[in-house]
Amino acid sequence: MRNGKRAEQILGYSLVAPALLLILAVAIWPVIQSFYYSLFDYRLNDPTKSSIHLNYSLDLEGYLQNYPFLKSSLTQEMAQANPDAKKALVDVEEKLKKMDQTIRSDQEVAKRYDQVDEALNNFESPSDELKMVEIDEEAARQFQNNVREVIKTLSQMKEEGNLKQADKIVGLAQGLKGVVVEPNFIGWQHYKDSLGDTRTWKALWNTASFTIISVAIELVLGLGIALLINKTFFGRGLVRAAILVPWAIPTAVSALMWKFLYDGQNGIVAKYFEDIGIVHRMGDLLTTEVGAMFAVIFADVWKTTPYMALLLLAGLQTIPSSLYEAASIDGATKWQQFTKITLPLLKSSILVALLFRTLDAFRVFDLIYVLTGGGPANSTETISILAYKMMFSQTNFGEGSALAVMVFICVALISMIYIKLLGADLLSDGAKK
Amino acid sequence: MSKKAGPLFYVCLAVFIFFVMFPFLWILLSSVKPLSELFGDHAFQWFTSHPTFESYVSVFVNYPFLRYLWNSTVVATITTVYTVFVAAFAAYAIARLEFKGKAVILGLVLAVSMFPQIATISPIYMFVKKFGLTNSYLGLIIPYTTFALPLSIWLLVTFFRKIPFDLEEAAKMDGATPMQTYFKVILPLAVPGVFTTSILVFIAAWNEFLFALTINTAEKYKTVPVGIAMFQGQYTIPWGELSAATVIVTVPLVIMVLLFQRRIVSGLTSGSVKE
Q1: DSSP symbol at A53
Q2: What is the DSSP string of A123-149?
Q3: Is A173 within 8 Å of chain B by CB?
Q4: Which residues contact A294 (CB under 8 A, 6 or more apart)?
Q5: B220 burial class (0-12, 13-18, 19+ CB within 10 angstroms)?
Q6: Partners of residue A317 in chain B, C-beta under 8 Å
Q7: A38: three-class secondary structure by DSSP
Q8: Interface test with B, best of A1, A20, A23 (most B CBs within 10 A)
Q9: List of chain B residues whose C-beta atoms are within 8 Å of the C-beta of residue A20
Q10: What are phi and psi of A41, to 5 degrees?
């Protein structure tokens, strides 16, 4: 029997393993990576920051595109220069040569040096892995100092008129400046910047108000609908199907649909809202700050109230009707029955539904991205939208990741609060009942 | 459950259904209007006197809409089949086998299903870019695992738990190995649950927006939600075509929901209700 237990354990782990590994690889690892990115000044549009480096490194491609040409130009100059200038030039050349030797003193680097050189001679562009070599901080500093001195000397000579091809030579020397890539680790700087930025706080505020208002309305309406349809009636299946349709269609498509209905000139819903006096003018819906937030919440309520109602309906159906019968025999009013029986017994269903909906609302993206794009004047910009814009419009992956991590932390906090309220109900083993 | 439904109830119900269906109704009516009647004086008329299918034709002629439909179908189908397959084994183990750490694993699965997508997008984007998977089906199927797999495991666990344990005991008595029990006893009984899970995962994958928006940007690989959302030009929005496209994607969903509503509801509510 003991053997059987062991075998079962092993089987259990091996059956779970593939799924767990996948989850680890595609969900958990990326979150950790996001956090790691957020500690770097990581920008896709800036070649020196388009990857993550903790150490100083040297861009061999950039180096070899400048150094050899600089050297040969200097040799040409020396042939024509006056004695004073020649001495200075020899000095510069010495410095550069020594630098080059230092770089090549490492065998591994020397090998890659030659490979990159060959690639460039064949007009190929070497891969990032090949061309970037790590160097220690001291070497990097020394390199930078040398380059700075060389530029200074050459610029001075240029001003004195001692260089024939002044622009070219100084330009090449300048080119060496960008060759050392500094580490772009910046620690918590993105978090400090984001938290000091009013735009972030506004986005957080927008997200929070969107979440709280829409989920609250959805809960009240959903409960009402669930109570309404919690009985046998003709056409139940049809009603259920009708309820499911808003839930089932892609959010992006429903957002577009609402954009049409809200349109300031031709939108039927905008017109009705104007007629009943919810908005002053039809156009106000999508062009004023309050109007846009209202529009977004209204569309969200339309789409997800049915889902809420279904979850609550399922909870209602588990309450035995005998309780109500007993209560009405004892003379309890409908309201008393609702507050004393329905609500307490529905508590865990409500909490679970609220948990799912709050988290969903907090990470809202599609609806707002399509309906308002976060506008007007960032009035509907949620934290997810802001993070997306940082990453993909401004290609600032570091700061965008920091915002994404903040979304993650908020979601984790919200879940913890709910799980605390729910206790172990959520995960308890239904089979042990 | 025995409460009687009165006439007032049906009135309330009708009002509610009308509110839920109104946007669709309007889009349906707009999709058959000639373009000139979508704007100006005619914009608020319910019915057009000149119904036309020109918007429907235009969707297929002027936009690669068929291509979007095909892309979405491929991505959602492969995602569903592969995640449900992987999840079925894991869910069986969690629901029916005894081993340490089950609760922790299930908790992890639930936690991952609550991860905000935005928190995974930058590393995943860099990953698919590095391996040249942007604008490919695989480039979406891999990230879709992040939500599809936890969802499948979670749903399947609740379905597997509902299968009576006696059957398994009987199979054990007869000398069946756990794997034989799984394939011969549990799986056939779990077919409805697997089917329900598949529907829900398919819908989730079909509707996904953020990954599709960032990873597959080429016309040729756009999925339906992104494709439709990008119909809008810089200054003009082709409302006629948009209405037609919306109707085209909604009709199959309505049919599916009508056919499988019972299953979908059981899937949506399983795990959230203590029975």
Answers
A1: -
A2: T-PPPHHHHEEE--HHHHHHHHHHHHH
A3: no
A4: A278, A285
A5: exposed
A6: 1
A7: coil
A8: A23
A9: 90, 105, 108
A10: -85, 90
Judged by a CB distance cut-off of 8 A, whether residue B25 touches chain A is: no
Cα–Cα dist A77/A75, whole Å: 5
| Coil vs helix vs strand at B202 | helix
Give, for A181, the enclosing helix (H) or strand (E): strand A180-181
The DSSP annotation for A341-401 comes to IIHHHHHHHHHHHHHHHHHHHHT--HHHHHHTTT-STTTT--HHHHHHIIIIIS-BHHHHH
Considering only residues 77 to 136 of chain B, which have any Cβ-Cβ distance to chain A shorter than 8 Å?
86-87, 89-90, 92-95, 97-100, 102-103, 105-112, 114-127
Q: If we measure between CA atoms, which residue out of A393, A366, A261, A378 comes closest to residue A304?
A: A366
What is the rounded end-to-end Cα distance, in angstroms, of chain B? 16
Measure the CA–CA gap between A154 and A296, rounded to whole angstroms.
62
The domain limits of chain A are 57-181, 197-393
Among candidate residues B14, B35, B22, the one with its CA nearest the CA of residue B241: B35
Question: Which residues, in sequence order, are CB contacts of B62 under 8 Å at separation 6+?
Answer: B241
A406: its two tokens? 């903040």
Q: Which of B21, B118, B126, B209 should be substituted to probe chain A, the one whose Cβ sees the most A Cβ atoms within 10 Å? A: B118
pLDDT at A209: 94
**A180 by DSSP, 3-state: which?**
strand
Q: Determine how many CB atoms are found less than 10 A away from the CB of residue A301.
A: 18
Query: Cβ(A197)–Cβ(A178) under 8 Å?
Result: no
Total residue length of chain A: 433
CA separation (Å) from A52 to A58, A181, A343, A393?
14, 11, 53, 20
Residues recorded for chain B: 275
pLDDT digits (tens, 9 = 90+) for B79-131: 999 999 999 999 999 988 888 888 889 889 988 988 899 999 999 999 998 89
Q: Which residues contact A278 (CB under 8 A, 6 or more apart)?
A: A294
Question: Contact at 8 Å (CB) between B10 and A235?
Answer: no
Check whether domain A197-393 has CATH 1.10.3720.10, yes or no: yes
Q: Which of B23, B116, B275 sits opposite A411 (nearest CB)?
A: B116
Closest Cα to residue A358, out of A300, A425, A292, A420? A300
Identity of residue A317: Q
At A100-139, the pLDDT tens digits run: 888 888 888 888 888 888 888 888 877 777 788 888 888 8
From chain B residues 46-75, the ones with a CB under 8 A of any chain A CB are none
pLDDT per residue as tens digits for the range B35-69:
777 777 667 777 877 788 888 888 888 888 999 99
Task: Give the tokens for residue B29.
Answer: 């009516």
Structural domains in chain B plus CATH codes: 16-52 (no CATH), 81-269 (1.10.3720.10)
Given A271, A370, A401, which is nearest B44 (Cβ)?
A271
User: CB distance from A304 to chain B under 8 Å?
Assistant: no
Interface residue B246 vs chain A (CB under 8 A)? yes
